[in-house]
Design brief:
homodimer; TIM Barrel; 13% strand; binds flavin mononucleotide; Diverse_substr_monoxygenases (chains A, B); flavoprotein (chains A, B); FMN (chains A, B); NTA_MOA (chains A, B); monooxygenase (chains A, B)
């Protein structure tokens, strides 16, 4: 077969749907239960997923707490690197991807921890490089507010470049462990880094061997112009958030097109379409399952989520009337695409506030139906050149992942779109990404 | 029985002895083999050890590489938090302690990662708080050199205080997960931290529930006046490095005496005497095993280790003559106790350079002999009021740990000095440390 589709899943503890934690089948303790996460990772591994992925924000909300208590995203979760390290010993094949922000951390520590995870997992680590998008995280790191978008990306560029150089501190065969000569490493194969940049200064070498993958897989999900350029330059996996195959194709062509400027082969970057999916035995059952979760959304949550992404306070407004024009800010500070999407809905569709938040709820655009329907839609995206694979979100975990693994995966295999077993040992090999050679290697 | 002795072990990949990696029984791949570490942790767990501990320096040497290739300490190792997280799923009872320096990291991230480890392990995390002691680590974090001793400890105090407050971001029962009311947490039970200090600024709450242990166990190993005061104020476990029961008793009395000033019960701090041990069936066999490793020390290594701790370059000197007085610096910048110890040996004993480094090699003071001999010495320290337990170092791993677990542990149990099984679920419970109540708890 041609290259099989890549499959990743974004794992929020009880599921992707804001109200999932309220569902009777949800595990109330999920967010700090390693057994729960291990079950999900093993299930995804049974389904031959390439990547188990966790998002992150290094902060808990401290305001508007009643609303956030109704949608407890990131309020009580494992830290990604520690979580993925624990999972490395509980899984064998699946890639382990986590988010870390370049706006707050130290490059040496990030390089070290991801390299360590790559060694622990035998070459299955991936780093989702984000610049963060809120002030309340910034305040946990000595800042009053998040630096402007352009500055964050400049820092991200410098950080990723530095981290990659740190991963190359040693050539692949530097640690010779030659007992006869009494040399643990070949001194000529260390390449210390000397960096004097705008955001970072560093002189030294990483204290761990070059990662099994050469370097952990770099993921990016930037949607802005700057974000896309950054991805074209450095990312090996991109999570896309387009919602139609047409938009997906345009994004795909645009992003792969940008890579030439950076002398990169378009095949060295895999674009995974973000897609919430829900499969059931019948179309009606899928609708019912979907409606059941939608009905659990508390109005306060719906309004708060909208407020967050519109960057405006919509509380206190009539739920059954449209959002007044004067409540809409002039421009987005944090996330342009979310902002534009909401403003578009308000201006073009004249929805009531309630209709707006139900429509905006991220579970709402769930691709749903029978295994055949879901496989059809995935096939259309994949063979139509809109993606190299999918970043799937499951509204309720582990239920919806299990349904997918048991029914859609075999269907995709029958169609020759998915492999029958893990082809490689490392995440890179499974994704069909080349292993970056060490710059000093002949 | 009275409180049983606490047992910890400091794990360097192939063992504590500088030359251990050269031994035919050493696992050449040890330093990045999780199976190797897991084997050691499980073995220690079989021996009912309280704590598996890894030291750390966030840096690799970049100078004098031939010498360091002959003693590859910290040149190629897992990062502690990722390593311990992986081990959390591979062990059930033993505490997992790791070193992190307060001189370079972000308190929010340190608080988060140790809290996450505590949740992953069901309450088995411990943090060895160090201020680091070399310039080459500082250069990985944007500094030209390490800040002065007093400043490092001031920063450490502020950091530990802030981290503890972050661990108290939520009351123990904050996450009510009340589906009927639709509230995941009780908003009144979040206690956000507002901190404007000398070294750190932070406004926010940790995004993980209060750790199972209330907070992870705080370890310290400061030897200086400032270090001891800091330990008396905040540590719950202290690694001592005295080498005779008399000195041990003096240190013990001094440190526990300092606690009163901080209104702390002496029993809330456990002092573990650092002790390299080697057990064999006969005294002669133990001597032979010891000599075998000592003979593997390369002169370049012996001299480099001395140079490091004397903070002077001793290379090029005649190995069979005493160290000339003019090579001795006026005072130590990094580690006063090591410095004083070496200067004392040079001035008082007139050893040759070769004798000096053989004597100074940390494996040299290994307590060794039959199970009875080793148990006798431990009993003398323990019952004589020189310690609450031991931080044991094994020169060759897993060999020497296995010998200890198989022979000395049963002997200590027969003498009523060690328990027969793990008494508690958490590290705190096993050590007999109380769980810190949340400040807001009635
Ligand atoms: C699937 C997916 C996962 C993401 N995960 C995170 C995350 O974990 N943390 C984060 O701060 N941002 C995350 N983002 C946001 C992106 O990193 C990025 O900031 C956003 O798409 C806006 O693009 P821009 O940064 O180019 O403006 C994610 C986006 C997508 C589509
Ligand atoms: C058993 C033991 C383990 C130690 N582990 C570390 C370590 O992992 N990293 C480190 O930088 N220092 C470590 N130290 C050094 C101490 O933290 C401390 O810096 C040293 O004892 C000097 O004391 P002072 O800081 O009060 O001057 C250790 C010391 C002992 C006795």
């Amino acid at each position: 077969m041609a290259r099989p589709m890549a499959l990743a899943t974004l794992v929020h503890p009880t599921g992707y749907h804001t109200a999932s934690w309220l569902h009777p089948q949800a595990n109330a303790q999920a967010s700090t239960s390693i057994e729960h996460y291990a079950g999900i990772a093993r299930l995804a591994e049974r389904g031959l997923f390439d990547l188990f992925f966790v998002a992150d924000t290094p902060a808990a909300r401290t305001e508007n707490l009643t609303a956030f208590s109704r949608m407890p995203l990131f309020m009580n979760v494992f830290e990604p690197l520690t979580l993925l390290s624990a999972l490395s010993g509980m899984t064998r094949h699946i890639g382990l991807g986590g988010t870390a922000s370049t706006s707050f951390g130290e490059p040496y520590t990030m390089a070290r921890q991801f390299a360590s995870l790559d060694h622990l997992s035998g070459g299955r680590a991936a780093w989702n490089v984000v610049t963060s998008a809120n002030d309340y995280a910034a305040r946990n790191f000595g800042l009053d507010r998040l630096p402007p978008h352009a500055e964050r990306y400049a820092r991200a560029r410098e950080c990723v470049d530095l981290v990659k150089r740190l991963w190359n501190s040693w050539e692949d065969d530097a640690f010779i462990r030659d007992r006869a000569a009494g040399l643990f490493f070949d001194p000529a194969k260390q390449h210390a880094v000397h960096h004097e940049g705008t955001h970072f200064r560093l002189q030294g070498a990483l204290n761990i061997a070059r990662p099994p993958q050469g370097h952990p897989v770099i993921i990016q999900a930037g949607a802005s112009e700057t974000g896309r350029d950054f991805a074209a330059q450095t990312a090996e996996v991109v999570f896309a958030s387009e919602t139609s195959p047409g938009d997906g194709r345009r994004f795909y062509t645009d992003l792969k097109g940008r890579m030439e400027r950076h002398n990169r082969d378009p095949d060295s970057l895999k674009i995974l379409a973000g897609m919430p999916v829900l499969v059931a035995e019948s179309a009606q059952e899928a609708e019912d399952m979907h409606a059941e979760l939608q009905a659990l959304i508390h109005p306060e949550v719906g309004v708060a989520r909208l407020s967050m992404d519109l960057e405006a306070d919509l509380s206190g407004l009539d739920l059954d009337a449209p959002v007044p024009e004067e409540r809409i800010p002039q421009k987005a500070r944090f996330h342009q695409a979310y902002f534009d999407h909401i403003v578009g809905m308000i201006r073009n569709e004249r929805l009531t506030l309630r209709q707006l938040y139900m429509r905006y709820e991220r579970g709402n655009r769930t691709v749903r139906g029978t295994p055949t329907t879901v496989a059809d839609i995935m096939e259309e995206w994949f063979t139509g050149g809109a993606c190299d694979g999918f970043m799937l979100m499951f509204n309720l975990l582990p239920r919806d992942l299990k349904g997918f693994v048991d029914s859609v995966v075999p269907e995709l295999q029958r169609r020759g779109l998915m492999r029958e077993n893990y082809a490689g040992r490392t995440l890179r090999e499974n994704l069909g990404l080349f292993r970056p050679p060490h710059p000093a290697a002949g």
